[in-house]
Amino acid sequence: MTITINRRAALAAALAIPALARPSLGQAPWRATRPVRVVVPFPPGGATDMLARLIAQGLGEKLGQPLVIENRPGANGVVATQNLLGSPADGHSLILATADTHTVLPAANPRLPYNVAEFVPVSGIASVVFALVARPGLPVDNVQQLVELARRARPPLNYASYGYASVSHVAGEVFRSAIGAEMTHVPYQGAGPGVLAITADQVDVMMVPVAVANPQRPRLKMLGVAAAQRFALVPDVPTLTEQGIPVLADAWIGLLAAPRTPAPVAEAIHAAVSEVQQTAAFQETLRTNGFSSLGYGPAAYATFLRAESERWGRAVRDGNIRVEG
């Protein structure tokens, strides 16, 4: 099973959607009148937090007000998302959401205390590509050897993730299903602990962002990249597709505003974000930290999110991944 979408097609579809309302001629574009807070649903130090602070460096200047980063981890993004629900819909409160918090989790937990579709798309900023890594003591050097071992292993091999009902979990389950092997899921509280368990030979394999795994290359085996093409950060690592397993996995990161935020406000914020994104320094930081740039405005981002909900929702259902309560 391939979990992917054609982003070119998604953008083409977005162009067919009527443009979001813009300020009429003579009406000044929206400007922030007080500090803008960006809620991050993860602790400081992770990839999402790093991206938030990178955006904040230039975005505050563009909006005319400082950006305040608020880290509110907990419950796979539920804590941060609920915090935004109580904020005025005036553009001064945003969330740096991810595929984990606003695509995979809603598919796995239909009882969330909010509807993620009500949040207003502002800017699709970046995506992270995943890689399949293995512990150093596992007697395999490529994906085909792993497939052969996984199919005959008793007890079954296990695969780690950085959390139940995360992109890492779903991507691992999709890989397990694609190779037709029984494997046991072992969730960890974050990508860092999961990778450390791999390097310590405590768990067999893991689907994890390339940027997280790459610094640990001397202490683990990076078997394949879950992308359509080889990834620039690790050009020596073949894709899973090259090795006969067409599994593609990446996770988006972007800004959403509170429900009922007016379209002109979202457009104005995106215009400022776009200026920051287009700088050479920002693009270089993305590249060296394992991100791919998205650059979607509100309309294209909304179309993209609908497509992402469909593809990850299908993978969640196929894997029978559910969060109760």
Describe this structure in words.
By secondary structure, the chain is an alpha/beta fold. The protein folds into two domains: 35-127 and 250-318, Bordetella uptake gene, domain 1 (D-Maltodextrin-Binding Protein, domain 2), CATH 3.40.190; 129-243, D-Maltodextrin-Binding Protein, domain 2, CATH 3.40.190. Helix content is 38%, strand content 20%. It contains eleven helices and ten strands. The protein has helices at residues 7-15, 47-63, 78-85, 99-108, 143-152, 167-179, 191-199, 210-213, 263-277, 280-288, 298-318, and strands spanning 36-40, 67-71, 93-98, 120-134, 157-161, 183-187, 205-209, 221-225, 250-257, 291-296. Strands 1, 2, 3, 4, 5, 6, 7, 8, 9 and 10 form a ten-stranded mixed sheet that branches. α1 (7-15) crosses α11 (298-318). The longest helix has 21 residues, at 298-318. Residues 1-26 have low confidence and may be disordered.
Please supply descriptive tags for the structure shown above.
alpha/beta, D-Maltodextrin-Binding Protein, domain 2, 11 helices, disordered N terminus, 325 residues, globular, ten-stranded mixed sheet
* Rounded radius of gyration (Å): 20 Å
Question: Do you know the CATH architecture of the largest domain?
Answer: 3-Layer(aba) Sandwich
- Give the fraction of residues assigned to helices: 25-40%
In total, the number of strands is: 10
Average pLDDT, rounded to a whole number, is 90
Query: From the helix content, strand content and strand pairing, which structural class follows?
Result: alpha/beta
Largest sheet: 10 strands, mixed
CATH class division of the largest domain: Alpha Beta
CATH topology of the largest domain: D-Maltodextrin-Binding Protein, domain 2
What share of the residues does DSSP label as strand, in percent? Answer: 15-25%
Based on CA inertia axes, which overall geometry fits?
A: globular
CATH superfamily of the largest domain: Bordetella uptake gene, domain 1
What distance separates the N and C termini? 29 Å
Compute the number of structural domains. Answer: 2
Annotation field: number of helices: 11
